[in-house]
Amino acid sequence: RADEAEERRADEAEERRADEAEEEGKEEDSEELDDLYAAMALDHEKDQAEYERRKVEDARWAEAEEARKAEEAAEEAKEAAELELLMLGDRPEECVSDRRGFDTKALELPKGKSTLGARKTGGKRKREAAA
Predict the structure, then answer these.
(1) 32 and 49 inside one domain
(2) This protein's superkingdom (predicted)?
(3) Which of 31, 47, 79, 93 has the lowest tally of Cβ within 10 angstroms?
(4) 24-65: per-residue pLDDT in tens?
């Protein structure tokens, strides 16, 4: 009986040690999980901050691109207006028209000048001159 009681106490002590070790293991696992979750939360915060930063950066880039396109369009409109003025000429009343109604003054430009100033004057001036 003493041997059985001794053996039972030894078994109970061993079970207690096993239970304590298991509890410690659970606590360690729990701490490791807590650390892992904290690291994941920190990574998520960093990713979210990076996402927000890039979103702002993309919005700024889009604004700059729109401004650049608007500036380009304004420059093209200005160039088109200047070209139209060149085509109309400074003093259209001085233009001499040939029988087909085209401006011949453009043909008299010095070498190297553009002939973009040539334009059709139409029969209106001929009718006015005849009247």
Answers:
(1) yes
(2) Eukaryota
(3) 93
(4) 777 777 788 888 999 999 999 999 999 999 999 999 999 999
